[in-house]
Amino acid sequence: MAWTERQRLMLQEMGLRVWALASSPAPVSETTAAPLAAPVSRAAAPQRAVQLRTVSASPSPQPAAAAVPMAHAGGDADARARHIATLDWPALREAVAACTACGLCKTRRQTVFGVGNLRARWMIVGEAPGEQEDLKGEPFVGPAGQLLDNMLHALGLTRAEAAPERQVYIANTLKCRPPRNRNPEPHELAMCEPFLQRQIELIRPGLILAMGRFAVQALLRSSEPVGKLRGRVHRYHDVPLVVTYHPAYLLRNLADKARAWDDLCLAAATLAAAEDRARRA
Ligand code: URA
Question: Which H or E run contains 1?
Answer without folding.
Answer: none
